[in-house]
Amino acid sequence: MLAQYPWDYLRPLAELASRYDFILRPIVLFFSLSMLLLSLLAYRKKKTKRFALIALAFFFFSVKWALKVLDLFVSPGYFFSDASENVFELIIFVCLLLALFRH
Fold first, then answer.
1. Angstrom distance (rounded) from CA 74 to CA 88
2. Could you tell me the pTM of the whole model?
């Protein structure tokens, strides 16, 4: 079957990801909490604004994924909408951008 649109080739991968979403979300939450812990340890060792911003970014990343995992177990639908997720991602990007260009 020939793909009608260029993104049609990604459909099998998207279907595979959605099949394993129940497993992948907790795994990503675990890694985000691990990165939050590492960034907090780095901040404790060297208290700079750069490390504080990185820790803040990973805090928001962890909260976002905690909400996504809760969405699997608590909500019958998606209470954490794409718009809400976009706000979290914007905050994460701003924190990381500020940390990147902080002297």
1. 20
2. 0.84
